[in-house]
Amino acid sequence: xxxxxxxxxxxxxxxxxxxxxxxxxxxxxxxxxxxxxxxxxxxxxxxxxxxxxxxxxxxxxxxxxxxxxxxxxxxxxxxxxxxxxxxxxxxxxxxxxxxxxxxxxxxxxxxxxxxxxxxxxxxxxxxxxxxxxxxxxxxxxxxxxxxxxxxxxxxxxxxxxxxxxxxxxxxxxxxxxxxxxxxxxxxxxxxxxxxxxxxxxxxxxxxxxxxxxxxxxxxxxxxxxxxxxxxxxxxxxxxxxxxxxxxxxxxxxxxxxxxxxxxxxxxxxxxxxxxxxxxxxxxxxxxxxxxxxxxxxxxxxxxxxxxxxxxxxxxxxxxxxxxxxxxxxxxxxxxxxxxxxxxxxxxxxxxxxxxxxxxxxxxxxxxxxxxxxxxxxxxxxxxxxxxxxxxxxxxxxxxxxxxxxxxxxxxxxxxxxxxxxxxxxxxxxxxxxxxxxxxxxxxxxxxxxxxxxxxxxxxxxxxxxxxxxxxxxxxxxxxxxxxxxxxxxxxxxxxxxxxxxxxxxxxxxxxxxxxxxxxxxxxxxxxxxxxxxxxxxxxxxxxxxxxxxxxxxxxxxxxxxxxxxxxxxxxxxxxxxxxxxxxxxxxxxxxxxxxxxxxxxxxxxxxxxxxxxxxxxxxxxxxxxxxxxxxxxxxxxxxxxxxxxxxxxxxxxxxxxxxxxxxxxxxxxxxxxxxxxxxxxxx
Length: 683
What we know:
CATH architecture of the largest domain: Alpha/alpha barrel
Distance between the termini: 79 Å
Helix content: 25-40%
Number of domains: 3
CATH topology of the largest domain: Glycosyltransferase
Radius of gyration: 26 Å
CATH class of the largest domain: Mainly Alpha
Protein name: Alpha-L-rhamnosidase B, putative
Organism: Talaromyces stipitatus (strain ATCC 10500 / CBS 375.48 / QM 6759 / NRRL 1006) (Penicillium stipitatum)
Structural class: alpha+beta
Shape: globular
GO molecular function, one term: catalytic activity
Number of strands: 30
Mean pLDDT: 93
Pfam families: Bac_rhamnosid6H, Bac_rhamnosid_C
Keywords: Signal
């Protein structure tokens, strides 16, 4: 027998929790199905915000009496004395889950209170707003202490707090002016990404010579993690008048991708248009994506219409989000080649296409009757954004038809419809005098960010108009991001996620990187934010009151500070700067088309069911660079070298010289998997 000596209950539980954390576990009784380790170990892992354990504690004290700043375990460090005394604990990053407090009370009759906030702006004795009651915050949790001595309070499962950085703990003790509550342990069981025991087991990575871009990439990846939640932790609808409940069922499976950590905690297909590519190229968890899409098919109306959002919100009446469910299906199959999912839902997909194309009127344009959308101020009639999304839905639907093995001619039919639509949209929605698409086929003077960005990204804009549109988009820029004309005074990182991709497609890498640094760089460096995630939106006056300027009836604390629809740089930096993208299911075919911008070195990779894809490039000078890449066996692709107008190239592939003429675009076909190295000298 080994005598350990006297040990307090508090210290015992600290040791016990540490042992659990070291062993690793998944959320509650969920089976661990996630990867055990990262696919690409390296120095870049220092940028991963995800904690090393599902059990975490505060990193510091933001505010307390006695100028305390360090969080310490044990007795005598974190003491509340008297009524109204409080300590604000800072977890340092966005977190979410179930909080436990171990304490020692000097007497019975005390009340322990907890309040939560994502942003520093709203720390205090009232939590920020998440429940949808709009005009008021969520209040705080209370726990009556009935006995003196040591005790434990764990918040109820239905009070799970999906997203916060700051925890305010305060004491109510009206009858005990000298009463004390010693908080000798504050711990949190992480609730997001419930099937992963190792939250740092990323299946993709990105690293460049620009540390700001690296941090931005990983903030998008971490946001996606916080947005993958247990399927029984959705926000309760109808919204409660006070407090909050996160106990609603969101869909099938154990984990599902939602729009935000704090709220809405529901599947939103439009958000997935950005969040799903970011998921694939970073953490790689697509089980949650499948579950998110499946719930949209499971709740499809008899007309073929998809809901705007999954349960329990289950909002309806959005033509654009209907099409985003269709586009989301394409993205999921592109990344996974999950033919079982495609066959299971193929008939419903066709019904969805029939439904939306049935709203194309005699003008050849889609007549938008489901007017709900991402937050833009106006929608309806022949709205140009909806036309561009339909164009993309038709083209991606044509590819799905091929992958589904359709023999009825759907692919060619949908491709033909897309070509006709593009011609009509370019003829009726483009403002020649201004040089960009207007918001509708009518005589409007509004030139929206969403339609113009998507017109380039999805290839609808006539080629001779691309550069003009790209330039016009920059006229909405401020020092902290692009204001959306369709939502005045507001900066939407969701729509800006399409814009940065549009500039890359236009070959304007410097422009795209500039916008990333302005918008996402502003938030990641904002001391009032989470400094670890990407925000839903904000105002051009540099406050967090997204949409409040347009008459929405809620307080600014309702804004989500961990919103996957804003994670565009996480996929864009892989697809366009590193240059590696998939063109066939699971990467059976791929493209490598790097863009330098002002960077000198970039590397990254990701994992598909076919294996690992990895690339890197380094510029030695303005006249020479090296490109290395590794692709799985059984795949084939095309390397597109950056254009060098009017100059010759000397190029060697794996040490063998390859002659080129003076053509501006230089491509190399790679017919089998393996490792390759290309050395280029510009003469």
